[in-house]
Amino acid sequence: MPIVVRIDVELARQKMSVGEFAERVGLTPANVAVLKNGRGKAVRFSTLEAMCRVLNCQPGDLLEFVEDER
Fold it and tell me: Fewer CB atoms near the end CB (10 Å): N or C, the chain?
């Protein structure tokens, strides 16, 4: 998949647990795991905004485009 999710990097940078992050963003820990592991198919802008607000980061800190090697 050409979009790499870097939530785990930002969580480590903030020294924040998945549980605390999920609670502050308004998601279940299971849904955070789906996003964190790159299995999510979509993210609402309101959710992305909440994640950035909680982690004090930009959307580009959480999502990265990586070209497929074919």
Answer: C
